[in-house]
Amino acid sequence: MAARLTDGLDLLLWRHAEAADASATLADRDRPLTARGEKQAKAVARWLRRRQPESLTILVSPALRCRQTALALQPAFAVDERLAPGAAAADLLAACGTVGGAVLLVGHQPTLGQLAALLLAGGEADWSVKKGGLWWFGRRAGEVQLRAVINPDLL
To answer: Could you give the C-alpha distances from 9 to 41, 111, 145, in angstroms and in order?
Structure first.
């Protein structure tokens, strides 16, 4: 499957920050960010706020940890079931397919890593996006470019 990004589109992949472990009383979708995760989300949001494209659409997994990560950047975002845990890379591409300008997807591993591999290497692979990490892709003159990789612990 070839990655299909429109020329001029920026696609930002942001993995949710560190979250509480799942337990018998806490469903996976209800896991909140830890204190460290909140710090990670705020650090990446601060970096992104200074650099984000003017027109940015934010699509977020329905999982609490993803919504909390996105809230660190801004309160206006759309929750999209296609980004839920267990999604496929094709689901993420479909979610941003009709948006122009720039799209920020806040989601999960392994899907974000698989999409990153698809975009850069032309095929899905199990690449790792660090918790709270941000990968920024652009497409210019028919070529997908990796513009930035941000590790929240280094900000």
So the answer is: 24, 20, 11
What digits encode the pLDDT tens for the residues 18-46?
A: 999 988 888 999 999 999 999 999 999 99
* pTM, 2 dp: 0.95
Handedness of CA 119, 124, 129, 131 (dihedral sign): positive
Q: Which of 50, 72, 43, 64 is nearest to 130 (CA)?
A: 43
Neighbouring-strand partners of residue 15: 107
Q: Provide the pLDDT for residue 130.
A: 97
**Rounded-to-integer distance, Cα 31 and Cα 17, Å:** 11
Which CATH number describes the domain made up of 10-154? 3.40.50.1240
